[in-house]
Amino acid sequence: MKKNNKKFLSGGLGQLTIPLIAIALLFIFNLIRDPGFFSIGISHNNDGNAVLAGNLISIINGASELAVLAMGMTLVTAACGGQDISVGAAAAIAGSVFVKVLKSGSGISGGTVLLAFVAACIVAMLFGTFNGVLVAVFKIQPMIATLILYTCGRSIAYWINGGATPTVSSHIITAIGSFIPGIPIPTPVLIVALVAILFKLLFHFTSLELFTQSVGINGSAARLNGINSTFIKLLSFIILGVCVAVAGTIGVSRLSLINHETLLLDVEMDTILAVAIGGNSLGGGKFKISGSIIGAYVIQMLTTTLYAMKVSSTDVKAYKAIVIVLLVVIGSPVVKQRFGKLLERISSKKKITVKGAEE
Hints:
Elements (H helix, E strand, L loop, with lengths): L1 H9 L2 H21 L7 E4 L5 E4 L1 H8 L1 H17 L6 H18 L5 H28 L4 H4 L1 H14 L10 H7 L9 H19 L2 H10 L1 H6 L4 H27 L11 H11 L11 H20 L4 H18 L2 H26 L1
Antiparallel strand pairs: 1-2
């Protein structure tokens, strides 16, 4: 029983316990407060297409950018034992590049959109490489290294489009940010599913997951076993760069314009919290991408719940902070260890009681 308790608390389902409990509690709370809160209906958008609607759809859809960023952040956290606090600024840069390429042509076609996305990915990967070099090569703590781009990133996004906030009117862009005609599920939700599948395939067909965890747990031991720790850390930042480009593209497509000042503003802390709520150690090592995705939905559901309760926008962050601190503390190693000891004590008492009854 002792081994089972440790296994439950340290890995497998145990790593997802906190986010799953958080989701369940928010579900129950909202159902008690408003039994119809999670009801899903069919409505028609501006183009007359039938689409799914309701708070649950809004939560899943609204968390899309956060979920994509959380997946990339999980790799950086696991490999480097630190976090990238520049993802919001980098997304603004990627979004600006995306719009710049779209506006450079005579019209917006499928090929133009693909070219713009590839350009956004390349630029985001280059900035990710910059952060990765500072961390992996120059051994700068990740939060300090990425503070540079966090500080100047939105200014760079401002320069790309000359300080303007150009709009990109196109049915393709509208489809990316909302719904594809004939498909009732929001496109950003489908993009999150696609990114998650790509991560799953990447981990299945390569040893990246194992190497990342090895480097995060003990970089020196990983090097002795032939793993290039510098490359793994650098690669994690590059992959995060792709996730940043995806999130920036979704954000731009939702509004059909780029606003470097507001695009994914303050998303950095929510991304880090999504990773933490997902049961991943912020000190590096073992990780679960699925936990970070659930963590993103926990944060979005909490935000939606607070707004539904008429909490003012200025107070939402304070309430979120209180709840998230509780979740992070409950999921901390100290609390898990004491809970494990409590389970062992209860198990021992049960064994003694059963043994006494048999005698």
